[in-house]
Amino acid sequence: MLPSMRTPWINFGLLLCATAFSLALMEMTSRFVYPISAGPKFITSDGRELNSWNEPGRTYRQVSSEYNAITNITGKGYRIPEVQGNPDVIFIGDSCTFGVGLGDKETFPFQYALSKKVTCANLASPDWGTGEEIDRLEEALSDWGWRPRHVMLFMFAMTTSMAGGNDIVDNLAYGRKDRSDRLLKRVAQKQSTLWGNIYNYLRYQVLFSSNLARILKFHLGSQVRSAVSLRIDEQPLKQSLELTRRQLLRLQHLSDVYGFSYEIFLIHPVQDIVRGTADHTQQALQSISPVPIWDTAHLFSKNPTDYYYAYDGHPNARGSAAIAQFLLSRNK
């Protein structure tokens, strides 16, 4: 190869090396100057890390780059307020109802109980779908002997994406004893757009190893979610909606047996609102529900990103307060 032909390749190689060195230097510097955590840690008062959200009788702090939230778990393994005897109202749901990133008094079940002056129990837990949530309610009814007057189920879901924390997708995994459900979820996860695959790789690989990537998500999390959330195709969507319908019928059956009234509320991931698909989600879930579903999208429609943690994706204190005020504004 002539010297004149080698020169462009040598220059290109030098440019790649310089770029890689610069990025490595920026990565190392960012970890000291502007560290962003890859996710929450649960730290006890003596500095020990926990692995469970609901370890009975435990007090800990949820710690991340976006929050440092005191969390108290009762002896029965649910978040305060603690109930002595029979609760008037039971809240069931996932991480949004539990209050990821929120101090005890910032969760909307706590605010509702305080303002209404009624006894309320928050039986929600992160990473659950509707099936697990109703299992927990059934345990309280049958094993603890609770007889609530009213139950509120909060669903965190969207029907146009495989978004993380999506209750209707989590309900696919609830049927894990049925091999077909497990396979269906795997198929659904593979049926995504190119951008969805890129996002999935970034989320599970790069975010845990690159502080620069975490900084980007920390500042542009809502926009990134809105642009590249994984798409859910028609067949997995139909299956997940059918499985969700069965769980809502279980709730109706428990209401009939134990004599409590109940309501269902829909909380949307921020990208469902930003992308303008919240109505689609509400209509799809309403079509499978035995009772009217209260939608909360209108609470956040003007400036949705102001109500959610950018990196974490859960409603922040402002979002939780908006939900609490919405609950209190109704004559229930």
What does this protein structure show overall?
- With 332 residues, the chain is α/β, with parallel strands linked by helices.
- It folds into 2 domains: 1-33; 87-328, Rossmann fold.
- It is built from 12 helices and 9 strands.
- A 5-stranded parallel β-sheet has the order 6-5-7-8-9, with helices on both faces. The protein has a 4-stranded antiparallel β-sheet with strand order 2-1-3-4, with no helix packed on it.
- A hairpin with a 5-residue loop joins strand 1 (41-43) and strand 2 (49-50).
- Helix 4 (130-142) runs parallel beside helix 9, helix 5 packs antiparallel against helix 6 and helix 7 packs antiparallel against helix 8.
- The longest helix has 31 residues, at 3-33.
Keywords:
single chain, 332 residues, alpha/beta, Rossmann fold, five-stranded parallel beta sheet, four-stranded antiparallel beta sheet, 12 helices, 49% helix
